[in-house]
Amino acid sequence: MKLVIADTGALISLGLVGHVDLIEGVFGDYYIANAVWEELLSYENPEFEKSFLINLGKRVINIKTRNHLSVIMDYGESESVILYEEMNADYLLIDDNKARIIAESLNINCIGSLGLLIKAKQKGLINDLKPIFEKWLENKRHFSKQLLNNFLLQIGEDLLSE
């Protein structure tokens, strides 16, 4: 069982496709920083089903230390990194490339929602990634079609259409 701290972007991506539950299915326990909670509550997208937030509320934790990273990272990302360190977590679930580079430079073990989905598929928790990727592209999530097709190619699924 691994402990994961989840950031806003990854939760939005997983929430858009109804797969936030995969975090627990793949790793075990997970928590979110209060800043992430606030960002999720204010996120607006008609495709984003907020009903999963009811169960997520019990996973919110306030950081104990001053947020010294907010000058180089967004609010949710910086609190997620601090919470990761405070809880001695195993993974930081984060999609933002700049924030991930910063987190990895701090020796934080990062995984993105793409990596999580690959692990979920390997464990048999989901069957096909292509429909998930299509929904991400429809909702303008920050993944390139080329990147998603590279993942589909690696796992032997049909590629996204041009």
What's the structural blueprint in terms of helices and strands?
Elements: E1 2-6, H1 8-16, H2 21-26, E2 28-33, H3 34-42, H4 53-56, E3 60-61, H5 75-87, E4 91-93, H6 97-105, E5 110-111, H7 113-122, H8 130-138, H9 145-155
Parallel strand pairs: 1-2, 1-4, 2-3, 4-5
Helix pairs in contact: 3-5
Question: Could you walk me through the main structural features you see in this protein, from its secondary elements to its overall organization?
Answer:
The protein has a single domain (2-123), classed as Rossmann fold. By secondary structure, the chain is α/β, with parallel strands linked by helices. The N and C termini lie far apart (40 Å). It is built from 9 helices and 5 strands.
Brief synopsis:
The chain is an alpha/beta fold.
Which structural traits does this protein have?
single chain; 162 residues; alpha/beta; Rossmann fold; five-stranded parallel sheet; 49% helix; globular
